[in-house]
Amino acid sequence: MSNIEPTNPDPTSPDPTSPDPDEPVSAGSSTPPANWYPDPDAPTERLRWWDGTAWTENRHPIAVAGAQPARVLGPRTIQITLAGVSLILAGASRLSGYGNSSRGSDLLAEVIGAAILEGLAMAAAFLFFLLAGYPNRKQVTRVVSSVMIGVYLISTIVGVAALTIPGVSVVAGIAGLLVLVGGVVFGILAATTRELPGAFRALPLVLYAGILVGGLVFYSLSAVAIIVVGILYITLGRRVTPALSAFRAPANATVAVGENPPE
User: Fold this and answer.
1) Which residues, 6 or more positions from 126, have their beta carbon under 8 angstroms from its beta carbon?
2) How far apart are CA 70 and CA 184, in angstroms?
3) 182 and 147 in contact (C-beta within 8 Å)?
4) 10-residue stretch averages of pLDDT, the chain, 263 residues long
5) How far apart, in Å, are the Cα atoms of 259 and each of 3, 103, 197?
6) How far apart are CA 186 and CA 196, in angstroms?
7) Do the Cβ atoms of 39 and 60 come closer than 8 Å?
8) Biggest alpha carbon distance in the chain?
9) For the packed helices 169-191 and 198-216, what is the interaxial angle rounded to 10 degrees?
10) Of 78, 92, 124, 150, which residue is the least packed, with the fewest Cβ within 10 Å?
């Protein structure tokens, strides 16, 4: 077998002479030299390395001259996007619940429904963060994300009970405080993950700062903050590092030599 190593092919001008894989190679016969040739299985889509004797498993896509590399959306990008959608839904539910609560007790059912939807949406956002490994895949971050899911579910139950059962409001306040503390801890973990772009690291702290300030000043402002952060997750999540988001397939990636060429 030839010792020639495959180098990066020039996808726009492959060698037009392609060996026939169905013809046996006999001693002393004239065969094409080791080089990149159109892959017999997909001649218009990729090249394949011929080592001078047989086809190897080294393949490389045929790039179109002047074309931009394809943008690939990985599962983490989708999960971050879904987290952003969940935050938008949570913010909209909070805004709806606040509007209905200010209109009197006749809309109590709508207020309860909005509170349940908000809590479930926030829990879903942290579930998607957990699945995406955001802001990192450290064990402590995964634990905090899991705790936040549970805390949001519990606080939703307690918060709904506080709307109908006297004396539960204190417990609901404690649950709300736990949500805020957990969110700040999650924000600190994100802010200290240096692999992420600065804006993407800051989003959790921005989220809970908005929730805190909105709760103290104007409740609907916290809902707006949740919606804005959700939109930012969707937009920024498509442009962050490959560890969490979209990545670009390299146009001139080095193609490795196959260790086990086909017989």
Assistant:
1) 83, 145, 148, 149, 152, 186
2) 37
3) yes
4) 54 52 51 82 82 81 57 75 96 82 63 92 97 92 96 93 84 90 96 85 95 87 95 84 39 38 34
5) 12, 72, 38
6) 14
7) no
8) 95
9) 160
10) 150
